[in-house]
Every structure is written in C-alpha cells, then in structure tokens.
Design goal:
The chain has 13 helices and no strands. The protein has about 290 residues and is mainly α. The radius of gyration is 31 Å and the shape is elongated.
Length: about 290
C-alpha cells in the first residue's frame, strides 16, 4: 500500500472538509421545506392510491404531530447531508472509497503526523522557545537585566511594583506555558471542528467550547504561579525598595536582625496559604479527571 503524499497543510485539509460540509448543508436547507411538504403529500396519496387527490389541510393536534415528525425527518436528513459532504471530500482528497474503512483509517493515520509537523512552523517553534527560555536564566541575572533596562528614560520602572511584577511574570512564564499547553492538548480538536462546521467563529468556539473545558487547568495554572511568586527571593532582592518590600524580602531582613518570632509567624502564614492552594489544586485535578 503506497503512502499518501501530503501536499497541503492540516488547516487546508480541514478547511476543505468544512467547505464541503457547508455546501451540502446549504444545498439541503434550500429545499428542506419543499421536502417536508412533498413527503406529507406523498404520505396522503399513498393512503388511497390516487395520485390526483389534492392535499387537504390538517387542523388541530394532527397538524402539530405531522409538523414535529417532518422536522425530525428534516434534521436526520440534514445530518446525512453533512456526513455525505465530509465523506465525498475524504474520497476526493485521499483516494479511498466508502467500502474501504481500513484503508481510510490507515491513510488518515499517516496524514495526521505529517499535518501535525506541518502546523509547527518556525514561528510556533520560536514562540515556544521564548516562552520556555526563562527556565535557564537565574533569578539574579534576570534582576540585573531588568535593573539595567528600566532605570533610565524613557521607561523608568525601578522603585515601583511594576518591575517586580515583570520579574515574576518572566520567571513564571514557562510554568504557565506548559500548564496551559497541556490543558489545551487534552481537548479533542473534533469538538472545535464540529462548531466550525455549523458556522461558529474561532472566538465563539473558544468561549463556548474550549474555555469551559480548560477552566480547571487555568485555575491550577494561576495557583502554581502564585505559589512560585510568593516565595521568590533571588530576583526580588535586587529590585525592591523601602516601599516595595515583599514577604520573602521582609523575612530576609528580619533574619539579619535575629527577630525569629516575626519570622516564625510569617513562615506559618506562608505555609498555611500554600497548603490551602495545593488542596485547591488537588480538588480541581480530581474534578477534571472524574
């Protein structure tokens, strides 16, 4: 069995599937009312075998039942029309027949890795590298870079909480990137594809489908970033001022003066906050896997 060459990207193939399904759907919707009326007239003529009998108007609950039945038949036919459009596009794109399910599955399994590799172009790899690069940068080096960059005009951030916030975001960016990426990979792309087939935009699919499915992953990511930021010291020790002290810097200063009582209180408080957040992560993780 010869391999199937992939001459287009995954987005092009999925776009052609969506276009074929939409064309079949629109063509069917244009005749959906005539189909229901013709089926109703044929049902009446079949009862007495006379094709010349004009259709009579049905009143009352009988008319409502016939309308409901006609709508159900129309929806079933609409689903068949969409499936036929996708099937025809698969036959045209991959050269397989409807009677060859094994051949179709094999060829699609060969197409999927190639499409995944084609989607990871140089821009995607570059952004992925930039998002994970701060893992290899020590906190003290990051603090020196931020200090040299934001202590001169036109943008002076030293002495404000903004520069500390920027340091925290830079250090915790790899954690957020990996967590959100894992949550997005757990969502089947067929769910978004189905919404796109029926006319939803990418934003609507993200808000109504992808967003609710990754909600627990977002909460878990936020908690992990908060835990990493509340105990950060290596970058903050060079960026704080008298007005922008953090808890970790305060504990470090108290240690220099041997004030162990306040240090113990702050340590217990940080442990309580951390344990509470870890329990929230555990609850959200179990809820997602249940």
């Amino acid at each position: 069995m010869e391999p199937v060459p992939v001459s287009a990207t995954a987005g092009t193939r999925r776009g052609s599937l969506f276009a074929a399904a939409r064309d079949h759907r629109r063509a069917f919707e244009g005749t959906i009312d005539d189909h229901g009326a013709a089926g109703l007239r044929g049902h009446r003529r079949q009862g007495n075998g006379d094709a010349s009998v004009a259709p009579r108007r049905v009143e009352g609950s009988g008319a409502g039942a016939l309308r409901v039945r006609s709508r159900l038949l129309d929806r079933a036919a609409l689903r068949r029309a969409v499936a036929d459009g996708i099937r025809e596009e698969l036959v045209r794109s991959h050269g397989v027949r409807e009677s060859d399910p094994g051949k179709l599955a094999l060829r699609l399994s060969r197409v999927q890795p190639d499409a995944a590799r084609a989607s990871e172009h140089w821009g995607h790899r570059l952004l992925s590298f930039l998002a994970t690069a701060p893992v290899a940068i020590p906190g003290i080096v990051l603090a020196v870079g931020l200090f040299l960059s934001y202590t001169h005009p036109p943008l002076v951030l030293y002495g404000t909480l903004a520069i500390i916030f920027l340091a925290y975001v830079t250090k915790e960016l790899p954690v957020g990137y990996q967590q959100i990426g894992a949550a997005l990979k757990a969502v089947h792309p067929e769910l978004e594809d189905a919404s796109r087939i029926f006319g939803a935009t990418r934003l609507r699919a993200l808000v109504d489908i992808t967003g609710p499915l990754i909600r627990s992953g977002l909460v878990t990511t936020w908690i992990l970033i908060f835990i990493g930021s509340i105990r950060e010291l290596s970058a903050t020790i060079l960026l704080f001022t008298a007005r922008t002290k953090t808890v970790s810097v305060t504990m470090f200063d108290l240690r220099e003066s041997n004030d162990w009582g306040p240090i113990a209180v702050l340590s217990i408080t940080m442990l309580a906050i951390t344990f509470a957040l870890v329990s929230l992560i555990d609850r959200f993780t179990h809820r997602r896997t249940a």
